[in-house]
Structures are given as C-alpha cells and as structure tokens.
C-alpha cells in the first residue's frame, strides 16, 4: 500500500458486528462498501445502523444533519465492488471457518494487490484463515467488541506470516479511528475471550454446585466486585448461543484443556432456546419480575473471590506465555469488557501469595486440572516480585 491514507473500507457481513464496524467508519467520514452474503443482508444492516442513529437523535446525543452525512458514506455493494474498491477489507461473518475461508479466497482473488485483508473473528485462528489466500502476509486479525460504535477496544492479531507493514498499518489505522488498540498473539480467544472464560465458567460451576443461584452470583459480582454486570446477566445480554459457541471453540482449540470446559447447564439452556434477552428467556425470564438475590455478604465474598482468582490466573498465564504485555492484558479487560480493574494490577493489590494459595486450595479440594495455578506465580514468589 502506498503512503496515502486509507479512505475506503469494505465490510463483509452486515450483522451486528459488521453493521457496527460500518457505522464506526462512516462516522469518521470514510466511504464504506458494505456487503452481506445473504440477499437483503446489507439493507438489513443499514436498518440496524439507522435504529442506532435514531436512538441517538432521540436522546439528543446525535445531530440529525450529521446522520444524513454519515448515511451517504455507506454504500451497499457486491462482494466484487467491496473488494476491488477498498484499501482495507474487514470480514465480519459468523464464526465458521469454512465460510471465512471461502470469503478470503474470493477477496484474495478480487482485491487489489496491496489491500489489507482483515478478519473480525473473536476466537478462530487468524493463521488458518490467512492460509486460504495467496498472500497471507497481508492478512491480519482486527477484532472489535460489541457494540462496535461504543466499545473502545480493538485487538490486533498478526498471524505467523503477517508482515510488519500490514501489522503497523493496521495498528495506526485503528488508532486513527479513536479506538484503544492492544496487540496479541494468534492464540485461541486472543486476550479477552480467553481471559474472560472463568467469569462465565466458574459462575456456572458455582451454580451447579448449589452454592448460590443466578441472581445471588450476579449480585456478588456487581455489588461486591464492582463489575458492571454479573456473569448471568452478561451471558443473557451477549446471547447464550454466542457465548457457548466461543467457549466450545476455545476449549477445542486448547486441546480440551479443562480450564475452558463448557458447562452442560449452558448447553441445555441453549438447546431449549433460552438464548437470553433476544429470546426473552435465558438465565432470567424477562417477562416476569427479576428474582431477588440472597444478599449475604459472606457468601458474596466467597463467590467473588473464587471467580476473581480464576480470572487472575488466566490473565497471569497469558502473560507467562507471552500472549501480550501485562499492560495490554489489563487494558484489554478494562476497555473490552469493562472490568473494574486490570486483573494483574488487582492481583498486586490482593497479594500474589494470596491468589496462589487460593488456587492451590481449589486444586486440592477438587483434584481437577481446571484449578492449576499458572507457573508464573511460583516464579514471582521465589523472586519476591509483583506484576507492577
């Protein structure tokens, strides 16, 4: 690519994420070529964007004249037009490797030689996607968070063959959109979807053991832990089907490591069609009054401490395996999923020894590899070190 700024972006996939990415680009004045693989999909994506803008106007947060200008920046297009006219193409189709590979084979054939090809995958291998092209060096992961116009974080994931120009151009480009960028290795779940797994998985385990119900676990994480949403509220918001699929993908990709084992509770909820808010029924029945939590603070502290210890362990292990820097790991969790503190910073506050002791106690109690502490803790204790 030459030194001129990228001004045309192709977005492939006009669902929730694709439409959100298209909206982000249009609002900074860039031309967006929006394509969806389903007939009428791009138009449906435009309706999603229009609804978002209409709510902004209604709340006085968006100017109607600006919306008119932004609207003209988005052009529903064929795949050929989106590929051939764009300097950057971002794929945002469902998380199916076969579908993504088909699209990248077509993009590789149609796009200009210097066009950057990016995938918005949340958990699949960027390297495997890049292998479907003849120029894997121009393929990179650019992972936005939902809703893309609101959430500041974007993970940038180079594949093994991604060249420095593609990586650096992508980082600078996304920063110019006003987003917070973190870089990470191409490992399952990247930073956020890997580190956050215990927020859901351990909460489900606590429920399955009969320690507390959904409402009490959510209350503990919100009111005592300071999280914006509890795990069951958040799974209902994300969608049980989406959350379960990511867990299943990460579990398989990590060679069935027990730390990421999916829950039968969540699987059965998904099979029953209890997908969360979008189906009016998930862990909560949204047609009824919300259940009351047992606001026993001693129980709440135990719930928080168990889930938090597992989250810290996951963040620490990501650092141990050089998935990302400690700063980017903490930034990803505060900006990507609104955690009240960076997990590694939080570990320093609590004490490394306290976290390690808790994990060892859980492993001894359950005799499960799920609770094994990251080796980084013992290394740090031996050297009397903190994360910061």
Describe this structure in words.
The protein has 18 helices and 8 strands. It is an alpha/beta fold and about 400 residues long. It has helices spanning about 15-25, 40-60, 65-75, 80-85, 95-110, 125-130, 165-175, 190-195, 195-210, 215-225, 230-240, 240-255, 265-270, 295-320, 325-335, 345-350, 350-365, 375-385; strands at about 10, 30-35, 75, 90, 115-120, 140-145, 155-160, 180-185. The radius of gyration is 22 Å and the shape is globular.
Shape: globular
What is the count of structural domains?
2
Q: Which percent bin holds the helix content?
A: 40-55%
Strand order of the largest sheet: 3-2-1-4-5-6-7-8
CATH class call of the largest domain: Mainly Alpha
Query: β content, as a range?
Result: 5-15%
Quickly give the structural class.
alpha/beta
Give the overall pLDDT as a whole number.
Answer: 95
> What does the main sheet amount to?
8 strands, mixed
Helix and strand run = EHEHHEHEHEHEEHEHHHHHHHHHHH
State the CATH architecture of the largest domain. Answer: Orthogonal Bundle
What's the end-to-end separation, in Å? 39 Å
Radius of gyration (CA) equals 22 Å
Specify the number of helices.
18
Low-pLDDT ranges: none
Topology-level CATH name of the largest domain = N-(1-d-carboxylethyl)-l-norvaline Dehydrogenase, domain 2
